[in-house]
From TrEMBL, chain A:
Organism per entry: Nepenthes gracilis (Slender pitcher plant)
Domain of life the protein comes from: Eukaryota
Task of the protein: Component of the eIF2 complex that functions in the early steps of protein synthesis by forming a ternary complex with GTP and initiator tRNA. This complex binds to a 40S ribosomal subunit, followed by mRNA binding to form a 43S pre-initiation complex (43S PIC). Junction of the 60S ribosomal subunit to form the 80S initiation complex is preceded by hydrolysis of the GTP bound to eIF2 and release of an eIF2-GDP binary complex. In order for eIF2 to recycle and catalyze another round of initiation, the GDP bound to eIF2 must exchange with GTP by way of a reaction catalyzed by eIF2B.
Full protein name: Eukaryotic translation initiation factor 2 subunit beta
Biased composition (Acidic residues): 159-172
Biological processes annotated in GO: formation of translation preinitiation complex
UniProtKB/TrEMBL annotation, chain B:
Alphabetized SUPFAM superfamilies for the sequence: eIF1-like
GO biological process, one term: regulation of translation
Gene3D superfamilies: SUI1-like domain
InterPro entries the UniProt entry points to: SUI1, SUI1_dom_sf, SUI1_euk
Keyword Flavoprotein: no
UniProt-recorded name of the protein: SUI1 domain-containing protein
Organism of provenance: Nepenthes gracilis (Slender pitcher plant)
Residue spans crossing the bilayer: none
Domain annotation SUI1: ranges: 31-101
Pfam families the record matches: SUI1
Primary role: Probably involved in translation.
Family: Belongs to the SUI1 family.
Length: 349, 113
Protein backbone atom coordinates (compact mmCIF):
# COMPACT_ATOMS: atom_id res chain seq x y z
CA UNK A 1 0.00 0.00 0.00
CA UNK A 2 1.22 3.39 -0.81
CA UNK A 3 -0.12 6.51 0.63
CA UNK A 4 -0.52 8.47 3.73
CA UNK A 5 -3.49 9.51 5.69
CA UNK A 6 -3.53 12.46 7.92
CA UNK A 7 -6.12 13.12 10.50
CA UNK A 8 -7.22 16.57 11.38
CA UNK A 9 -9.68 16.53 14.19
CA UNK A 10 -13.00 15.93 12.47
CA UNK A 11 -11.60 15.79 8.99
CA UNK A 12 -9.72 13.10 7.23
CA UNK A 13 -7.53 13.50 4.31
CA UNK A 14 -6.12 10.56 2.50
CA UNK A 15 -3.66 11.18 -0.24
CA UNK A 16 -2.09 8.70 -2.56
CA UNK A 17 1.47 9.21 -3.50
CA UNK A 18 1.60 7.17 -6.65
CA UNK A 19 -0.67 5.45 -9.06
CA UNK A 20 -2.21 2.15 -8.14
CA UNK A 21 -2.15 3.07 -4.54
CA UNK A 22 -4.54 1.80 -1.98
CA UNK A 23 -5.42 3.92 0.91
CA UNK A 24 -7.41 2.65 3.74
CA UNK A 25 -8.47 4.79 6.55
CA UNK A 26 -10.39 4.05 9.62
CA UNK A 27 -12.64 6.19 11.63
CA UNK A 28 -14.98 5.66 14.44
CA UNK A 29 -17.54 8.13 13.38
CA UNK A 30 -21.11 7.09 13.35
CA UNK A 31 -22.14 5.69 9.99
CA UNK A 32 -23.81 7.90 7.45
CA UNK A 33 -22.69 10.99 9.18
CA UNK A 34 -19.87 11.79 6.88
CA UNK A 35 -19.68 12.72 3.30
CA UNK A 36 -16.64 11.88 1.31
CA UNK A 37 -15.37 13.79 -1.60
CA UNK A 38 -12.61 12.60 -3.83
CA UNK A 39 -10.51 14.94 -5.82
CA UNK A 40 -7.29 14.63 -7.70
CA UNK A 41 -4.58 17.07 -8.48
CA UNK A 42 -5.26 17.07 -12.18
CA UNK A 43 -9.00 16.62 -12.36
CA UNK A 44 -10.42 18.39 -9.40
CA UNK A 45 -13.42 16.87 -7.78
CA UNK A 46 -14.10 13.34 -8.95
CA UNK A 47 -17.06 12.31 -6.93
CA UNK A 48 -18.79 12.10 -3.66
CA UNK A 49 -20.18 9.33 -1.57
CA UNK A 50 -21.76 8.73 1.74
CA UNK A 51 -20.99 5.98 4.14
CA UNK A 52 -22.08 2.56 3.08
CA UNK A 53 -21.68 3.01 -0.62
CA UNK A 54 -19.15 2.29 -3.24
CA UNK A 55 -18.07 5.20 -5.28
CA UNK A 56 -16.61 4.41 -8.62
CA UNK A 57 -14.68 7.31 -9.90
CA UNK A 58 -13.65 7.04 -13.48
CA UNK A 59 -12.00 10.14 -14.75
CA UNK A 60 -11.90 10.41 -18.47
CA UNK A 61 -8.31 9.83 -19.29
CA UNK A 62 -6.91 8.17 -16.22
CA UNK A 63 -7.41 4.86 -14.61
CA UNK A 64 -10.49 4.43 -12.55
CA UNK A 65 -10.43 4.71 -8.84
CA UNK A 66 -12.74 2.98 -6.50
CA UNK A 67 -13.74 4.28 -3.20
CA UNK A 68 -15.36 1.81 -0.94
CA UNK A 69 -16.88 3.15 2.17
CA UNK A 70 -17.63 0.82 5.00
CA UNK A 71 -19.43 1.60 8.16
CA UNK A 72 -16.31 2.94 9.70
CA UNK A 73 -13.55 2.76 7.22
CA UNK A 74 -12.84 4.11 3.83
CA UNK A 75 -10.84 2.54 1.15
CA UNK A 76 -9.47 4.07 -1.96
CA UNK A 77 -8.29 1.61 -4.54
CA UNK A 78 -6.19 2.09 -7.61
CA UNK A 79 -6.31 5.78 -7.44
CA UNK A 80 -4.54 8.14 -9.69
CA UNK A 81 -1.49 9.86 -8.44
CA UNK A 82 -2.12 12.51 -5.90
CA UNK A 83 -5.72 11.78 -5.22
CA UNK A 84 -7.25 13.32 -2.20
CA UNK A 85 -10.02 11.85 -0.18
CA UNK A 86 -11.70 14.16 2.20
CA UNK A 87 -14.13 13.30 4.89
CA UNK A 88 -16.51 15.79 6.29
CA UNK A 89 -19.03 15.35 8.94
CA UNK A 90 -22.51 16.24 8.02
CA UNK A 91 -24.29 15.75 11.25
CA UNK A 92 -23.80 18.18 14.03
CA UNK A 93 -22.87 15.86 16.80
CA UNK A 94 -20.94 12.63 16.86
CA UNK A 95 -22.84 11.67 19.97
CA UNK A 96 -20.92 9.53 22.38
CA UNK A 97 -17.73 9.23 20.48
CA UNK A 98 -14.78 11.38 21.22
CA UNK A 99 -13.14 12.95 18.21
CA UNK A 100 -9.82 11.95 19.65
CA UNK A 101 -10.71 8.35 19.05
CA UNK A 102 -10.53 8.64 15.36
CA UNK A 103 -7.53 6.94 13.99
CA UNK A 104 -5.51 6.73 10.94
CA UNK A 105 -4.69 3.31 9.80
CA UNK A 106 -2.71 1.63 7.15
CA UNK A 107 -3.82 -1.60 5.67
CA UNK A 108 -2.97 -4.56 7.79
CA UNK A 109 -1.87 -7.68 6.03
CA UNK A 110 -4.18 -10.60 6.37
CA UNK A 111 -1.72 -12.91 8.04
CA UNK A 112 -1.59 -10.75 11.12
CA UNK A 113 -4.77 -12.01 12.52
CA UNK A 114 -3.81 -15.64 12.60
CA UNK A 115 -1.38 -15.01 15.41
CA UNK A 116 -4.04 -14.00 17.82
CA UNK A 117 -5.13 -16.35 20.54
CA UNK A 118 -8.01 -18.52 19.61
CA UNK A 119 -10.29 -17.88 22.51
CA UNK A 120 -10.28 -14.18 21.81
CA UNK A 121 -11.12 -14.81 18.24
CA UNK A 122 -14.05 -16.96 19.09
CA UNK A 123 -15.34 -14.25 21.29
CA UNK A 124 -14.96 -11.75 18.52
CA UNK A 125 -16.55 -13.82 15.89
CA UNK A 126 -19.50 -14.25 18.11
CA UNK A 127 -19.77 -10.57 18.60
CA UNK A 128 -19.20 -9.78 15.03
CA UNK A 129 -21.48 -12.26 13.47
CA UNK A 130 -24.26 -10.12 14.77
CA UNK A 131 -22.84 -6.90 13.48
CA UNK A 132 -22.19 -8.56 10.18
CA UNK A 133 -25.85 -9.19 9.81
CA UNK A 134 -26.64 -5.68 10.76
CA UNK A 135 -24.37 -4.42 8.07
CA UNK A 136 -26.66 -5.64 5.39
CA UNK A 137 -29.04 -2.86 6.19
CA UNK A 138 -27.00 0.20 6.76
CA UNK A 139 -29.84 2.44 7.61
CA UNK A 140 -31.57 2.44 10.91
CA UNK A 141 -29.10 0.26 12.74
CA UNK A 142 -26.53 2.83 13.53
CA UNK A 143 -27.10 2.96 17.21
CA UNK A 144 -27.09 -0.75 17.74
CA UNK A 145 -23.90 -1.12 15.85
CA UNK A 146 -22.17 1.57 17.72
CA UNK A 147 -22.98 -0.08 20.95
CA UNK A 148 -21.61 -3.32 19.73
CA UNK A 149 -18.35 -1.79 18.76
CA UNK A 150 -18.15 -0.20 22.12
CA UNK A 151 -18.83 -3.46 23.81
CA UNK A 152 -16.13 -5.18 21.89
CA UNK A 153 -13.65 -2.55 22.69
CA UNK A 154 -14.34 -2.71 26.36
CA UNK A 155 -14.19 -6.47 26.24
CA UNK A 156 -10.85 -6.64 24.64
CA UNK A 157 -8.86 -4.17 26.55
CA UNK A 158 -10.71 -3.69 29.73
CA UNK A 159 -10.38 -0.24 31.12
CA UNK A 160 -9.34 1.35 27.89
CA UNK A 161 -12.15 3.77 28.45
CA UNK A 162 -13.56 6.26 26.09
CA UNK A 163 -10.49 8.26 25.16
CA UNK A 164 -8.68 5.37 23.58
CA UNK A 165 -5.43 5.76 25.44
CA UNK A 166 -4.05 2.75 23.59
CA UNK A 167 -4.97 3.48 20.02
CA UNK A 168 -2.67 0.98 18.39
CA UNK A 169 -4.03 -1.87 20.39
CA UNK A 170 -7.53 -0.80 19.53
CA UNK A 171 -6.77 -0.73 15.91
CA UNK A 172 -5.33 -4.11 15.86
CA UNK A 173 -8.35 -5.52 17.51
CA UNK A 174 -10.51 -3.76 15.02
CA UNK A 175 -8.67 -5.24 12.11
CA UNK A 176 -8.77 -8.66 13.64
CA UNK A 177 -12.48 -8.37 13.94
CA UNK A 178 -12.84 -7.48 10.34
CA UNK A 179 -10.95 -10.49 9.24
CA UNK A 180 -12.28 -12.96 11.70
CA UNK A 181 -15.84 -12.17 10.96
CA UNK A 182 -15.44 -13.83 7.61
CA UNK A 183 -13.72 -16.94 8.72
CA UNK A 184 -16.27 -19.40 10.03
CA UNK A 185 -18.13 -19.46 6.78
CA UNK A 186 -15.33 -20.41 4.46
CA UNK A 187 -13.28 -23.46 3.74
CA UNK A 188 -9.93 -21.79 4.10
CA UNK A 189 -10.54 -21.21 7.76
CA UNK A 190 -7.52 -21.78 9.90
CA UNK A 191 -5.15 -22.62 7.09
CA UNK A 192 -2.01 -20.68 6.64
CA UNK A 193 -1.78 -20.72 2.90
CA UNK A 194 -1.93 -17.63 0.79
CA UNK A 195 -5.04 -16.77 -1.08
CA UNK A 196 -5.15 -17.11 -4.80
CA UNK A 197 -6.46 -14.10 -6.61
CA UNK A 198 -9.50 -15.93 -7.91
CA UNK A 199 -10.31 -17.10 -4.44
CA UNK A 200 -10.22 -13.62 -3.04
CA UNK A 201 -12.22 -12.28 -5.91
CA UNK A 202 -14.87 -14.89 -5.49
CA UNK A 203 -15.00 -14.21 -1.81
CA UNK A 204 -15.39 -10.51 -2.32
CA UNK A 205 -18.21 -11.00 -4.72
CA UNK A 206 -20.01 -13.52 -2.57
CA UNK A 207 -19.87 -11.13 0.35
CA UNK A 208 -20.95 -8.27 -1.78
CA UNK A 209 -23.82 -10.22 -3.22
CA UNK A 210 -24.99 -11.17 0.22
CA UNK A 211 -24.88 -7.74 1.71
CA UNK A 212 -25.72 -5.37 -1.05
CA UNK A 213 -26.55 -7.19 -4.24
CA UNK A 214 -27.01 -4.01 -6.19
CA UNK A 215 -23.26 -3.41 -6.11
CA UNK A 216 -22.19 -6.86 -7.18
CA UNK A 217 -22.00 -5.82 -10.77
CA UNK A 218 -24.60 -8.22 -12.04
CA UNK A 219 -25.85 -6.73 -15.21
CA UNK A 220 -29.26 -5.50 -14.37
CA UNK A 221 -30.81 -5.52 -17.75
CA UNK A 222 -32.99 -2.60 -18.41
CA UNK A 223 -36.33 -4.02 -19.20
CA UNK A 224 -38.53 -2.05 -21.52
CA UNK A 225 -42.03 -2.87 -22.37
CA UNK A 226 -42.59 -3.97 -25.95
CA UNK A 227 -43.93 -1.29 -28.24
CA UNK A 228 -47.64 -1.33 -28.82
CA UNK A 229 -48.49 -0.60 -32.37
CA UNK A 230 -51.83 0.05 -34.05
CA UNK A 231 -52.70 0.55 -37.63
CA UNK A 232 -54.44 3.73 -38.55
CA UNK A 233 -56.11 3.15 -41.85
CA UNK A 234 -53.87 1.24 -44.17
CA UNK A 235 -51.04 3.67 -44.57
CA UNK A 236 -50.29 4.91 -41.10
CA UNK A 237 -49.00 3.25 -37.98
CA UNK A 238 -49.58 4.46 -34.44
CA UNK A 239 -47.00 3.83 -31.79
CA UNK A 240 -49.14 3.85 -28.67
CA UNK A 241 -46.76 3.66 -25.73
CA UNK A 242 -44.15 5.91 -27.26
CA UNK A 243 -44.27 8.35 -24.35
CA UNK A 244 -43.90 5.59 -21.78
CA UNK A 245 -40.83 4.27 -23.48
CA UNK A 246 -39.32 7.72 -23.72
CA UNK A 247 -39.87 8.12 -20.02
CA UNK A 248 -38.27 4.82 -19.14
CA UNK A 249 -35.27 5.75 -21.24
CA UNK A 250 -35.21 9.29 -19.83
CA UNK A 251 -34.96 10.82 -23.24
CA UNK A 252 -36.73 13.68 -24.90
CA UNK A 253 -39.57 12.41 -27.08
CA UNK A 254 -38.41 14.73 -29.85
CA UNK A 255 -35.01 13.15 -29.90
CA UNK A 256 -36.38 9.64 -30.00
CA UNK A 257 -38.86 10.65 -32.64
CA UNK A 258 -36.28 12.14 -34.95
CA UNK A 259 -34.21 9.01 -34.62
CA UNK A 260 -37.12 6.71 -35.34
CA UNK A 261 -38.25 8.72 -38.33
CA UNK A 262 -34.76 9.03 -39.72
CA UNK A 263 -34.19 5.31 -39.42
CA UNK A 264 -37.48 4.36 -40.94
CA UNK A 265 -37.15 6.91 -43.65
CA UNK A 266 -40.64 8.25 -43.29
CA UNK A 267 -42.43 11.17 -41.78
CA UNK A 268 -44.60 11.24 -38.73
CA UNK A 269 -45.77 13.28 -35.81
CA UNK A 270 -47.14 13.15 -32.30
CA UNK A 271 -50.90 13.19 -32.07
CA UNK A 272 -53.18 14.63 -29.39
CA UNK A 273 -52.71 11.72 -27.01
CA UNK A 274 -48.95 11.90 -27.32
CA UNK A 275 -48.81 8.86 -29.54
CA UNK A 276 -46.47 8.68 -32.46
CA UNK A 277 -48.11 8.45 -35.83
CA UNK A 278 -45.81 7.23 -38.56
CA UNK A 279 -46.50 7.08 -42.22
CA UNK A 280 -46.11 3.62 -43.62
CA UNK A 281 -46.79 0.13 -42.41
CA UNK A 282 -44.57 -1.17 -39.66
CA UNK A 283 -44.70 -4.18 -37.40
CA UNK A 284 -43.96 -3.93 -33.67
CA UNK A 285 -40.83 -5.92 -34.34
CA UNK A 286 -39.54 -3.15 -36.56
CA UNK A 287 -40.03 -0.56 -33.86
CA UNK A 288 -38.33 -2.84 -31.39
CA UNK A 289 -35.28 -3.22 -33.56
CA UNK A 290 -34.91 0.48 -34.05
CA UNK A 291 -35.46 1.23 -30.38
CA UNK A 292 -32.83 -1.31 -29.53
CA UNK A 293 -30.40 0.49 -31.74
CA UNK A 294 -31.39 3.79 -30.20
CA UNK A 295 -30.78 2.47 -26.70
CA UNK A 296 -27.40 1.10 -27.68
CA UNK A 297 -26.33 4.32 -29.24
CA UNK A 298 -27.91 7.01 -27.12
CA UNK A 299 -28.77 5.48 -23.76
CA UNK A 300 -26.39 2.74 -22.68
CA UNK A 301 -23.11 3.76 -21.08
CA UNK A 302 -20.17 2.18 -22.81
CA UNK A 303 -18.20 1.68 -19.68
CA UNK A 304 -20.62 0.13 -17.27
CA UNK A 305 -23.55 -0.72 -19.51
CA UNK A 306 -25.94 1.06 -17.24
CA UNK A 307 -28.86 2.91 -18.69
CA UNK A 308 -28.76 5.57 -16.04
CA UNK A 309 -27.39 8.25 -18.31
CA UNK A 310 -28.05 11.82 -19.26
CA UNK A 311 -27.95 13.18 -22.76
CA UNK A 312 -26.98 16.80 -22.89
CA UNK A 313 -26.24 19.21 -25.65
CA UNK A 314 -23.09 21.29 -25.40
CA UNK A 315 -22.47 23.69 -28.20
CA UNK A 316 -24.16 21.71 -30.91
CA UNK A 317 -22.73 18.39 -29.84
CA UNK A 318 -24.60 15.75 -27.92
CA UNK A 319 -22.85 14.22 -24.96
CA UNK A 320 -23.85 11.20 -22.99
CA UNK A 321 -22.88 11.17 -19.34
CA UNK A 322 -23.30 8.17 -17.12
CA UNK A 323 -24.77 8.71 -13.70
CA UNK A 324 -23.42 5.44 -12.39
CA UNK A 325 -19.77 5.63 -13.25
CA UNK A 326 -19.41 9.22 -14.32
CA UNK A 327 -17.94 8.50 -17.69
CA UNK A 328 -18.99 10.44 -20.71
CA UNK A 329 -18.87 10.15 -24.44
CA UNK A 330 -20.06 12.06 -27.40
CA UNK A 331 -22.79 10.65 -29.57
CA UNK A 332 -23.40 11.18 -33.24
CA UNK A 333 -26.08 13.62 -34.22
CA UNK A 334 -29.14 12.20 -35.91
CA UNK A 335 -29.07 12.71 -39.61
CA UNK A 336 -31.98 11.85 -41.79
CA UNK A 337 -29.93 11.08 -44.86
CA UNK A 338 -31.18 10.70 -48.36
CA UNK A 339 -34.88 10.30 -48.83
CA UNK A 340 -36.02 9.07 -52.16
CA UNK A 341 -39.01 10.46 -53.82
CA UNK A 342 -41.87 8.04 -53.25
CA UNK A 343 -45.36 8.45 -54.56
CA UNK A 344 -46.91 10.51 -57.21
CA UNK A 345 -44.92 13.24 -58.78
CA UNK A 346 -46.71 16.39 -59.68
CA UNK A 347 -46.34 17.78 -63.11
CA UNK A 348 -44.38 20.73 -61.78
CA UNK A 349 -41.81 18.69 -59.89
CA UNK B 1 -17.73 -5.26 8.09
CA UNK B 2 -16.85 -7.04 5.01
CA UNK B 3 -13.32 -7.08 3.87
CA UNK B 4 -12.05 -5.04 1.04
CA UNK B 5 -13.77 -4.92 -2.27
CA UNK B 6 -11.70 -4.76 -5.39
CA UNK B 7 -13.66 -4.44 -8.52
CA UNK B 8 -11.51 -5.39 -11.42
CA UNK B 9 -12.46 -3.91 -14.72
CA UNK B 10 -13.86 -6.86 -16.59
CA UNK B 11 -13.74 -7.59 -20.25
CA UNK B 12 -13.83 -3.93 -21.04
CA UNK B 13 -11.13 -3.01 -23.49
CA UNK B 14 -10.07 0.56 -22.90
CA UNK B 15 -8.72 0.90 -26.41
CA UNK B 16 -11.77 -0.40 -28.21
CA UNK B 17 -13.30 3.01 -28.29
CA UNK B 18 -10.20 4.69 -29.57
CA UNK B 19 -9.80 2.16 -32.33
CA UNK B 20 -13.42 2.43 -33.26
CA UNK B 21 -13.14 6.17 -33.48
CA UNK B 22 -10.06 5.83 -35.53
CA UNK B 23 -11.76 3.69 -38.09
CA UNK B 24 -14.85 5.85 -37.92
CA UNK B 25 -12.89 9.09 -38.30
CA UNK B 26 -15.95 11.20 -38.79
CA UNK B 27 -19.30 9.90 -39.83
CA UNK B 28 -18.68 11.02 -43.38
CA UNK B 29 -16.90 7.85 -44.29
CA UNK B 30 -19.82 5.63 -43.57
CA UNK B 31 -21.78 4.13 -46.37
CA UNK B 32 -25.41 4.31 -45.42
CA UNK B 33 -27.78 1.72 -46.75
CA UNK B 34 -31.36 2.67 -46.13
CA UNK B 35 -34.70 1.23 -46.95
CA UNK B 36 -37.84 3.13 -47.66
CA UNK B 37 -41.39 1.98 -47.89
CA UNK B 38 -43.44 2.48 -50.94
CA UNK B 39 -47.01 1.57 -51.57
CA UNK B 40 -48.06 -1.91 -50.68
CA UNK B 41 -45.25 -4.28 -49.87
CA UNK B 42 -42.86 -2.56 -52.19
CA UNK B 43 -39.78 -0.88 -50.97
CA UNK B 44 -36.74 0.98 -52.11
CA UNK B 45 -33.09 0.69 -51.11
CA UNK B 46 -30.76 3.64 -51.20
CA UNK B 47 -26.99 3.51 -50.97
CA UNK B 48 -25.39 6.75 -49.95
CA UNK B 49 -21.82 7.74 -49.25
CA UNK B 50 -19.79 5.64 -51.65
CA UNK B 51 -16.48 7.16 -52.56
CA UNK B 52 -16.54 9.64 -55.38
CA UNK B 53 -13.80 7.84 -57.27
CA UNK B 54 -16.03 4.90 -58.06
CA UNK B 55 -18.08 4.86 -61.15
CA UNK B 56 -21.58 4.73 -59.80
CA UNK B 57 -23.04 3.58 -63.04
CA UNK B 58 -20.78 0.57 -63.24
CA UNK B 59 -21.53 -0.43 -59.69
CA UNK B 60 -25.21 0.03 -60.37
CA UNK B 61 -25.04 -2.16 -63.41
CA UNK B 62 -23.52 -5.00 -61.45
CA UNK B 63 -25.96 -4.54 -58.60
CA UNK B 64 -28.87 -4.66 -60.97
CA UNK B 65 -27.56 -7.75 -62.61
CA UNK B 66 -26.81 -9.52 -59.36
CA UNK B 67 -30.06 -8.82 -57.60
CA UNK B 68 -32.29 -8.88 -60.66
CA UNK B 69 -33.81 -5.55 -59.90
CA UNK B 70 -33.97 -2.19 -61.47
CA UNK B 71 -32.22 0.84 -60.12
CA UNK B 72 -30.90 4.25 -60.81
CA UNK B 73 -28.33 6.79 -59.76
CA UNK B 74 -29.93 9.89 -58.32
CA UNK B 75 -28.19 13.21 -58.12
CA UNK B 76 -28.90 14.83 -54.77
CA UNK B 77 -28.02 18.49 -54.25
CA UNK B 78 -26.53 17.86 -50.79
CA UNK B 79 -25.44 14.27 -50.71
CA UNK B 80 -24.12 13.88 -54.20
CA UNK B 81 -24.91 10.72 -56.04
CA UNK B 82 -27.10 8.10 -54.46
CA UNK B 83 -27.84 4.65 -55.79
CA UNK B 84 -31.46 3.59 -55.67
CA UNK B 85 -32.56 0.03 -56.07
CA UNK B 86 -35.97 -1.51 -56.19
CA UNK B 87 -36.92 -3.77 -53.34
CA UNK B 88 -35.32 -4.35 -49.99
CA UNK B 89 -31.76 -5.15 -51.01
CA UNK B 90 -29.96 -4.07 -47.87
CA UNK B 91 -28.36 -7.41 -47.07
CA UNK B 92 -27.50 -8.03 -50.69
CA UNK B 93 -25.94 -4.63 -51.18
CA UNK B 94 -23.79 -4.82 -48.08
CA UNK B 95 -22.46 -8.26 -48.92
CA UNK B 96 -21.84 -7.17 -52.49
CA UNK B 97 -19.94 -4.06 -51.48
CA UNK B 98 -17.81 -5.97 -49.01
CA UNK B 99 -17.04 -8.78 -51.40
CA UNK B 100 -16.15 -6.46 -54.22
CA UNK B 101 -13.81 -4.66 -51.85
CA UNK B 102 -15.45 -1.31 -52.35
CA UNK B 103 -16.10 -0.69 -48.67
CA UNK B 104 -14.99 -2.32 -45.48
CA UNK B 105 -17.62 -3.95 -43.38
CA UNK B 106 -17.11 -1.58 -40.46
CA UNK B 107 -17.89 1.35 -42.68
CA UNK B 108 -21.29 0.15 -43.73
CA UNK B 109 -24.27 1.28 -41.74
CA UNK B 110 -27.54 -0.39 -42.42
CA UNK B 111 -30.57 1.64 -41.42
CA UNK B 112 -34.20 0.82 -41.34
CA UNK B 113 -36.23 -1.67 -39.41
Amino acid sequence: MVGTISTIAEEFTARTKSALATVRTKCLMAPSMVSISVSSATQGLLGRATIGTTLLVAPNNTGPCWLRVYSNEIELLMAEEDTTVELKEEALEISTFDPTKKKKKKKVSIQDSTDEPVDKLVEKTENLSVSDVSESSFAGLKKKKKKQVEAILSNDDAGAGEDGDDPIGDEEEGEGIVLQSQLPRYPWEGTDQDYVYEELLGRVFSILRENNPELAGDRRRTVMRPPQVLREGTKKTVFVNFMDLCKTMHRQPEHVMTFLLAEMGTSGSLDGQQRLVVKGRFAPKNFEGILRRYVNEYVICNGCKSSDTILSKENRLFFLRCEQCGSGRSVAPIKAGFRARVGRRNAGA
Amino acid sequence: MSDLDVQIPNAFDPFAEANAEDSGAGTKEYVHIRVQQRNGRKSLTTVQGLKKEFSYNKILKDLKKDFCCNGTVVQDPELGQVIQLQGDQRKNVSTFLVQAGIVKKEHIKIHGF
